[in-house]
């Protein structure tokens, strides 16, 4: 079951400048940043709010790391802007399977590694009324040691 907006992915040419815009304009701080070589992105996660399912909603700012990445290709065609939306679920495998059964193309056979150790997959934008849609299961939160 999809229980939150996990993040909105925003493609940009210059991650540092874009992070500074979100900090100076809205006061949002970087919660986490990483490079995902498989996806060809350098990203910053800005936490916006906690959600009732125990997760959170983020903005995910994305800068391409290589010319042949999906985000570089998208930026060349569209310029900067909203690239994808991501719904959070406790069960990305089960939800992807169920959605696939409804005739929507799921892009990966198995979920791949996403931000902060999450597991992610994508639904084809042409099957989702023009919106590239991601499904995310967050990494389990480590329980504090006693
Ligand atoms: C492409 N299209 C889009 C789109 N990207 N429509 C809406 N939103 C997007 N972001 C449209 C495009 O305009 C074309 O329509 C058509 O789909 C085919 O696009 P294309 O340019 O020929 O590109 P493809 O087919 O090579 O690749 C498109 C797909 C690709 C969606 C298959 O971008 C993909 O595999 N995306 C999933 C991975 C990804 O995006 N990773 C970066 C974020 P017309 O012009 O023919 O009508 S990584 C991330 O989010 C992480 C790590 C995380 O959350 O943790
Ligand atoms: Co994403």
Automatic annotation (TrEMBL):
The keyword Isomerase applies. InterPro entries: Glyas_Bleomycin-R_OHBP_Dase, MeMalonyl-CoA_epimerase, MMCE/EMCE_epimerase, VOC_core. Belongs to the methylmalonyl-CoA epimerase family. Pfam families: Glyoxalase_4 (PF13669). GO terms for molecular function: metal ion binding; methylmalonyl-CoA epimerase activity. Coiled coil: none annotated. Keywords: Isomerase, Metal-binding. GO terms for biological process: L-methylmalonyl-CoA metabolic process. Residues 4-138 form the VOC domain. It comes from Streptomyces paradoxus. This is Methylmalonyl-CoA/ethylmalonyl-CoA epimerase. Its EC number is 5.1.99.1.
